[in-house]
Amino acid sequence: MIAKGYAASEVGGQMIAWTFDRRKPRPEDVEIDILYCGVCHSDLHQARNDWQNTVYPVVPGQEIIGRVLAVGSSVRKFRPGDIVAVGPIVDACLECAHCAAGEEQYCLNRPTLTYNGRDRVSGDVTYGGYSTGIVVSEEFVMRLPQGLAINRAAPLLCAGIAGWSPLRRWEIGAGSRVGIVGLGGVGHIAVKLAVALGAQVTVITSSPTKIEDALKLGATNVVLSSDERAMAEASGHLDYILDTIPVPHDLSVYLDLLSLEGSLVVVGSLASHGSIRPESLLRGRKRVSASLVGGIAETMELLQFCAERQILPDTETIAMQDINMAFARMEHRDIKYRFVIDMATLKAEMA
Ligand SMILES: [Zn+2]
Ligand SMILES: [Zn+2]
């Protein structure tokens, strides 16, 4: 399968059109015509080699919505024409204890990432969703439930599940007091999800311009992190905090907001947050954790929940050719709250 995509070919380089070969489909493979792909912060980091592990050329994209073109001889779950989704992981060993528990994202033998990963069979580099098509093993393809808008659902596959997984682990429900720190791609969906689960949601943000948005999204309270008095007043009032800030920061100011046995989980960030002083944990036996997206079953649960409740990310649709502009705007936090690429614009370029 010949695919066209947009790739970064050098450190800090621009995204440019690139034609490449997808792997020859295996019996368990699903060939997907990509319709939409979300633009995640990881895409930007990887394109610029911020994590020092990028293999160039890199084709980013790990929030994929598409239509099945063809299926291999052993595929049972999908047929041509099905609308499907693919997230940040396209393979795992499926034999280890973590895979057996449905937590393929934590595969003890390392999951295969959708891009900048290595195919488990051929060893070739994987290429992501900024392209016309992709070939994925059926175990890692999800059916998109009826009723979920295909042009907006893509960000659920990484940003959405990043928040959903910890909310479910904590069994968030009616009466849970949840704090969401940061109102970006992950944060804004997490607010919608926590509210839909019945939680009382407090948004903690550094930007006054987001107060109104947070309330519109369903938050009960908004606290400006720069407002020392408001932060002191909120102290000890939250049971759970989802920290979605993508850059290094001091966790202790947020730990102060937790009540007895409260938990703070860091999502959507690989940044170092420095050292945590035991003092900020011992006044209330508090916990700090971190979480990485979710497994396939849990992601399907999220898609189903969003279809039933009509929960969708707030998106701005762009053309593939606008990706460099989109990256620049993301750096300036000029997006509410997620870009989605309409892949018809890439196919038009080929015609
Ligand atoms: Zn495994
Ligand atoms: Zn992502």
TrEMBL record:
Cofactor names: Zn(2+)
GO molecular function ontology, one term from the record: alcohol dehydrogenase (NADP+) activity
CDD domains (alphabetical): CAD1
Keywords: Metal-binding, Oxidoreductase, Zinc
Entry annotated with the keyword Translocase: no
Transmembrane portions of the chain: none
Highest taxon, organism lineage: Bacteria
PROSITE patterns: D_2_HYDROXYACID_DH_1
Domain Enoyl reductase (ER) residues, every copy: 12-341
Protein name: NAD(P)-dependent alcohol dehydrogenase
Species annotation: Ciceribacter sichuanensis
